[in-house]
Write a structure and sequence with these properties.
about 575 residues, DNA Primase, Chain A, Dna Topoisomerase Vi A Subunit, Chain: A, domain 2
Length: about 575
């Protein structure tokens, strides 16, 4: 049985958008709206806005938008039906009886991954896994660590596919879980072969994916990771976060790979985590910020690792997470350092980790010879530009003193240079803000597709105003229905919104933005979200609505519309233009 509009209406009424979002975002009231830092991208200035009157939200930074159902869906990585069920449970409503294919396949993948993890672990402890056990012993991993991380071994044949078939799983399900691939001839095969296996586990204890490391010099890439599946997004997850969050520490150690993290945990650093075969993403930075106030970046000491370190520092700074950087001498990564110098030395290294600013200044210092006058001037100029981007005046004063001691220059002259750098920084920031604001106008969002018959900017603007007015005041519908049909809407998104609006109204529903949003396609949702946010303070009267209807009817015909119009239609349009001119 499909979920009825009456059920969705009651669900949205019972789950206040402020309460739902307030459990994840610190919201501050600004008149009729609420603002907070967006949970879907990193930012320092709140651009995430919640509208209680329309039970909706919109981020002016990344475009995230929707109703309570969509928020729960995106913040938890659920399907729509799973989000509906979660809200229903929280509000004491009976669960909808819905035959949902997406939920079923996710459940099947969780089950397959769990079986696969057990299968790989059993393989490791069998005769097949002898070489894998030797490899893990060479990496100095204990039995306890191997069990704690559920490490395993994927053999070189098609064993897993055959095993899962016997358990009742179809080939399509195995491919969907990224446990099997399909050849050009249509045959399935194990994706992970002859590799040490690392299960990836989410915060709820589900096995969601795998990483596999080859043991020799041949056999594909060194590391092979699961691709995105219905239960896994590489850009959203973190290896060992399920363990690190139990460490009770407000500082996480961010390493590059699985083995670094496992070695750190074995050495007692149970707050270590890593990304999943991708560069650090804003979603991962946000996720880390939800569980830790501080991050120590422990990437490899090679050039690629240092480049990744600088990028990560910028991202954490935007998220307002305190960042420090590990400087490892005599080892290329944490695993090698601990083996060479021990866990006590590594702990001392963490305690002496440089702040992000120290790291950048050290990099600048290496690029300039301060014994040379011009080199010293260039170094101080660049250092002041770096300090200018940090808003804390106490920190700036301290570093001005350090720079004076380091270079022999007067602190007052350095502070004067810093003030000039700050003025340039603020001017440039203001220019960027003004440019962004110019792009946030409603008309700037209109990208008219002239292939759609009759599309012109005046027509699209009028259609947006009409649809927005109907959503805010359903009683205006008779005015529109008496003068327009859906064929008058030349913009496909606005036409879709208008058609769905009328269909819901036919069910005697009060159709607000939150309910309508649930029945729209993604393109229409995106278009309507910005309109809803931009026009939130505009009160539309019947007279205003009539003005926009007149504008739509009197707007010039598009090139394709003229080309496809009949002589009678062209004559009528010319008469309208004459009347308008009079």
């Amino acid at each position: 049985m499909a979920i009825t509009t009456h059920y969705l209406q009651e669900l949205l009424q019972r789950n206040s958008i402020i309460d739902v979002i307030g459990g994840h975002v610190h919201l501050k009231r600004h008149g009729r709206i609420y603002k907070g830092l967006c949970p879907f991208h990193s930012e320092k200035t709140p651009s995430f806005t919640v509208y209680p009157d329309t039970e909706s939200y919109y981020c002016f930074g990344c475009g995230a938008a929707g109703n309570a159902i969509n928020f729960v869906k995106d913040i938890n990585g659920l399907t729509s039906i799973e989000a509906i069920k979660m809200l229903a449970q929280q509000s004491g409503m009976p669960l909808p009886d819905e035959d949902d294919k997406a939920s079923k396949i996710k459940s099947r993948i969780y089950e397959m991954n769990k079986l696969a993890a057990r299968y790989f672990h059993a393989n490791l402890n069998s005769e097949k896994g002898k070489q894998a056990r030797i490899y893990l012993r060479q990496r100095q991993l204990s039995d306890k660590t191997i069990v704690n991380f559920g490490l395993g071994y994927a053999s070189g044949g098609w064993d897993l596919c055959n095993y899962l078939k016997k358990k009742g799983y179809t080939e399509d399900e195995m491919v969907a879980a990224y446990l099997a691939g399909r050849s050009q001839k249509g045959n399935v095969y194990d994706i992970f072969r002859d590799r040490v296996m690392f299960p990836i586990i989410d915060l709820r204890g589900n096995v969601i994916a795998f990483g596999g490391r080859r043991m020799g010099d041949e056999g594909g890439p060194k590391y092979l990771n699961s691709g995105d599946t219905p239960v896994f997004k590489k850009s959203n997850g973190l290896f060992a976060l399920n363990l690190a969050k139990k460490s009770g520490k407000d500082t996480f150690i961010l390493a590059e790979g699985y083995m670094d993290v496992i070695a750190l945990h074995q050495a007692g650093f149970t707050n270590a985590i890593a990304t999943l075969g991708t560069a650090l993403t804003s979603q991962q930075v946000k996720l880390i910020g939800d569980y830790a106030k501080n991050v120590v970046i422990a990437y490899d000491s090679d050039e690629a690792g240092q480049k990744a370190t600088r990028r990560a520092m910028e991202m954490f700074t935007k998220e307002d997470v305190n960042v420090s950087v590990l400087q490892m001498e005599g080892a290329k990564d944490p695993d090698e350092y601990i083996k060479k110098f021990g866990s006590n030395s590594f702990e001392l290294l963490i305690n002496k980790a440089n702040s992000a600013l120290d790291f950048e200044l050290q990099k600048l210092r290496k690029q300039h010879d301060i014994k040379d006058v011009q080199g010293r001037v260039d170094y101080l100029t660049k250092a002041c530009e770096l300090l200018a981007s940090h808003p804390n005046p106490i920190l700036q004063d301290i570093y001005c003193g350090r720079l004076a001691e380091e270079t022999g220059a007067g602190k007052d002259s350095i502070k004067l240079q810093l003030e000039q750098a700050k003025n340039r920084f603020y001017r440039n920031s203001a220019a960027r803000r003004n440019k962004a604001m110019m792009k946030e106008g409603l008309a700037s969002d209109i990208k008219v597709d002239y292939r759609q018959s009759g599309n012109t900017v005046p027509k699209v603007l009028a259609q947006q105003q009409i649809v927005s007015a109907l959503i805010r005041d359903n009683d205006l519908l008779p005015i529109v229905e008496g003068q327009l049909t859906e064929t008058d809407f030349t913009d496909e998104n606005m036409k879709n919104a208008y058609v769905r609006f009328r269909e819901l109204k036919a069910e005697n529903q009060t159709v607000g933005y939150a309910l309508l949003y649930q029945f729209l396609d993604d393109d229409t949702r995106k278009s309507l979200a910005k309109i809803n946010a931009t026009l939130t303070d505009i009160i539309m009267t019947a007279e205003d609505l009539q003005l926009h209807i007149d504008k739509l009817k009197a707007a010039p015909m598009g090139q394709n519309e003229v080309k496809n119009a009949s002589l009678e239609e062209l004559a009528k349009h010319i008469e309208k233009l004459k009347e308008k001119k009079k």
